[in-house]
């Protein structure tokens, strides 16, 4: 539990690697009435034409990553950075600070609106050190072999391309070191729902006890 940030709202950092089922967990929490700050959506905002991030990314990677309509083609950009660690680090150094500012603004806005619980949903929550904005961290994990299978089935990637996506991310072991709650979406959806409800009950108990 992070005690070095404002206690209201209670911010839960939700993370997990690509194809871990993190987004389905976020959706289940949203159905419980939790407000989700979606860092992937904020990333899309950061890339919009006219933003500082847009200009800096084009300067770093060239106009060839633009679509015909003048926006950044994130698929083309991904093909560059996921095969080159230095390029990925360069992109992250540009984009992550911009997303962090947008996320902090969203949390501040929700604080003024009186929201009790907010989930900061981010694949790179730990890599970007955004967990410093959160009271606790919830992690979704599945075996890397299952990630590769899902990427091949869902994204049409070949095995080599899928493994590259896995290897540039934090490992399950690295995520588990800082996790307060751990989920796995390896089994039936009903089991995932039970995991979510158990975690939700626990956080509600903590909040109720702190308000006494």
UniProtKB/TrEMBL annotation:
<dbReference type="GO" id="GO:0015937">
    <property type="term" value="P:coenzyme A biosynthetic process"/>
</dbReference>
<dbReference type="Pfam" id="PF01121">
    <property type="entry name" value="CoaE"/>
</dbReference>
<protein>
    <recommendedName>
        <fullName>Dephospho-CoA kinase</fullName>
    </recommendedName>
</protein>
<keyword id="KW-0067">ATP-binding</keyword>
<keyword id="KW-0547">Nucleotide-binding</keyword>
<dbReference type="GO" id="GO:0005524">
    <property type="term" value="F:ATP binding"/>
</dbReference>
<dbReference type="InterPro" id="IPR001977">
    <property type="entry name" value="Depp_CoAkinase"/>
</dbReference>
<dbReference type="GO" id="GO:0004140">
    <property type="term" value="F:dephospho-CoA kinase activity"/>
</dbReference>
<dbReference type="InterPro" id="IPR027417">
    <property type="entry name" value="P-loop_NTPase"/>
</dbReference>
């Amino acid at each position: 539990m992070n005690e070095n940030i404002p206690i209201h709202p209670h911010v839960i950092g939700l993370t997990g690697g690509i194809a871990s089922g993190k987004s389905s967990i976020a959706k289940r929490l949203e159905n419980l009435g939790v407000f989700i700050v979606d860092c992937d959506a904020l990333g899309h905002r950061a890339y919009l034409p006219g933003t500082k991030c847009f200009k800096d990314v084009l300067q770093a990677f060239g106009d060839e990553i633009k679509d015909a309509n003048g926006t950044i083609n994130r698929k083309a950009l991904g093909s560059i950075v996921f095969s080159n660690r230095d390029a990925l680090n360069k992109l992250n150094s540009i984009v992550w600070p911009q997303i962090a500012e947008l996320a902090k603004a969203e949390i501040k806005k929700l604080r003024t609106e009186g929201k009790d619980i907010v989930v900061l949903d981010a694949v790179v929550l730990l890599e970007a050190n955004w967990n410093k904005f959160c009271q606790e961290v919830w992690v979704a994990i599945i075996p890397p072999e299952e990630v590769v299978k899902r990427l091949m089935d869902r994204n049409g990637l070949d095995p080599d391309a899928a493994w590259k996506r896995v290897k540039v991310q934090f490992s399950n072991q690295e995520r588990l070191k800082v996790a307060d709650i751990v989920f796995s979406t390896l089994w039936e959806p009903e089991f995932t729902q039970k995991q979510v409800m158990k975690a939700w009950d626990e956080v509600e108990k903590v909040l109720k006890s702190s308000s006494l």
